[in-house]
Design brief:
This protein is of the alpha+beta class. It is built from 14 helices and 23 strands. It folds into 2 domains: about 200 residues, Enolpyruvate transferase domain (UDP-n-acetylglucosamine1-carboxyvinyl-transferase, Chain, Alpha-beta prism), CATH 3.65.10; about 200 residues, Enolpyruvate transferase domain (UDP-n-acetylglucosamine1-carboxyvinyl-transferase, Chain, Alpha-beta prism). Helix 8 packs parallel to helix 12 and helix 10 runs parallel beside helix 12. The chain binds uridine-diphosphate-N-acetylglucosamine.
């Protein structure tokens, strides 16, 4: 079994380039199916979810070539509109193929997606908005979904019950080639939504307001593939910042978008970290001992991101005082609490929604297993802070979000190795 062996207590120092955003590249890759010709996507992180998605595209008939962080996708020969269950279940974001398959073929056969076990994660918003656009879905008892669009896709006025990221992306993907003008109200405003829209606009789509509450999309007959570079990963940037913070280090992040980090900066500042941003760089310099961060509540963008909740909790474990974190997006996103306690962290939870963390001066080394993508990264951060040798298993979770995490941290002076 693969594991990370970490000798904690070393200050992280130096510079690191941040990978492209996983949550951008996944919908952008799915969107290439809706465009004619060869798409070239740059700044693509080579993560398991990305390779799983490229496997799906190959299976649908696309030609895919990978060269470093650049992916070339020729969707000309795509003929299939069916994704087998085993591939759908490999990752949550496979549901994003629904919009692009329907935009391309007018039909889709998929199954209920998999992904991290951080909550129920239904897809009712996705199906409801597609229905409004003329898609009929039959759900089999085995979790299989058959979507058809007998009269073609048409525009609709969609009001999302909640600003769901995935549902907003599917609405955009379906609307770009639908007949008429679609309005999406209460849309998600995450930077990854604007990134998907920017890719599609480069392909010839007419989209206005992506990144805002209301998005207006005028359907076009055809999209032409283009060359595009995805935005930097703001969640990974915050992860590196947390690691610098818990080790009392000082690091500079390169190739980031400081504006996208605005929702997390107040908590780093509250912890006593000094943050400097200039152009596409951010430097974080940690105090000797972190201060508690008060009350943090996760919320849709521009609120504090749920994906940063776990790594910030790892910071709170060594901060002076009490930090209270409320998780408001997913109902089961405290699975990292139990393994964090193995490091000696003092965390109480209420209703699986509120965590009260009393920071300790230091953590002890521990053996712990990742429970989910971001939770696993939080364990690595705890291990970097702890005194002594820790071991983290369950690396397949961590690898879904961060490219070779051991190289990232060892490049910053962390003592971390991956062993079989
Ligand atoms: C995306 C991100 C994930 C992030 C999350 C919230 C990707 C690949 N993943 O996930 O990293 O944690 O946004 O920022 O971009 N919901 C429903 N019905 C639906 C859809 C969603 O009830 O049909 C609920 C979910 O259960 C959840 C909330 O809405 O409670 C938000 O989920 P959503 O924004 O859709 O998350 P994802 O797109 O799955």
């Amino acid at each position: 079994m693969e594991r990370l062996v970490i000798d904690g207590g070393k200050k992280l120092k130096g510079e690191i380039t941040v990978q492209g955003a996983k949550n951008s590249v996944l919908p952008v890759i799915a969107a290439t199916l809706a465009a004619d010709g060869v798409s070239v996507i740059h700044n693509c992180p080579m993560l398991c979810d990305v390779t799983a998605e490229l496997d799906i595209l190959r299976l649908l008939g696309c030609e895919v070539e990978i060269s470093g962080s650049c992916v070339r996708i020729d969707s000309t020969k795509a003929t299939r509109c069916e994704i087998p269950e085993n591939l759908m279940r490999e990752m949550r974001s496979s549901i994003i193929f629904l919009g692009s398959l329907i935009a391309r073929f007018g039909c889709a056969r998929v199954s209920v997606p998999g992904g991290c076990d951080i909550g129920e994660r239904p897809i009712d918003y996705h199906l409801a908005l597609l229905e409004k656009m003329g898609v009929r879905t039959v759900c089999g008892c085995d979790g299989c979904l058959r979507c058809e669009c007998p009269d073609g896709l048409h525009a609709a006025r969609i009001t999302l019950p909640y600003p769901s990221v995935g549902a907003t992306e599917n609405a955009i993907l379906a609307a770009v080639k639908a007949k008429g003008t679609t309005v999406i109200e209460n849309a998600a405003r995450e930077p990854e939504i604007a990134d998907l829209a920017d890719f599609l606009i480069k392909c010839g789509a007419r989209i206005d307001g992506a990144g805002e509450r209301t998005i207006i999309i005028e359907g076009v007959k055809r999209l032409e593939a283009c060359e595009y570079s995805v935005i930097p990963d703001r969640i990974i940037a915050a992860t590196f910042m947390s690691a610098a913070a818990v080790t009392g280090g000082k690091i500079t992040l390169r190739k980031v978008c400081p504006e996208h980090l605005a929702p997390v900066l107040p908590c780093f500042e509250a912890s006593g970290c000094a943050i400097k941003s200039y152009s596409d760089c951010v430097t974080v310099s940690a105090p000797k001992r972190l201060k508690s961060m008060g009350v943090i509540r996760t919320n849709p963008y521009p609120g504090f991101p749920t994906d940063c909740q776990a790594v910030v909790m790892a910071m709170a474990c060594v901060a002076d005082g009490v930090t209270v974190i409320t998780e408001r997006i997913f109902e089961n996103r405290f699975r990292h609490v139990a393994p964090l306690r193995r490091f000696g962290a003092q965390i109480e939870t209420e209703n699986n929604a509120v965590a009260i963390i009393e920071g300790k001066e230091s953590l002890n080394a521990a053996k712990a297993c990742s429970t989910d993508l971001r939770g696993g990264t939080a364990l690595v951060i705890a291990a970097l802070a702890a005194r002594g040798r820790s071991e983290i298993t369950g690396l397949h979770h961590i690898d879904r979000g961060c490219e070779r995490i051991e190289n990232c941290f060892s490049g910053l002076g962390g003592q971390i190795k991956r062993l079989d």
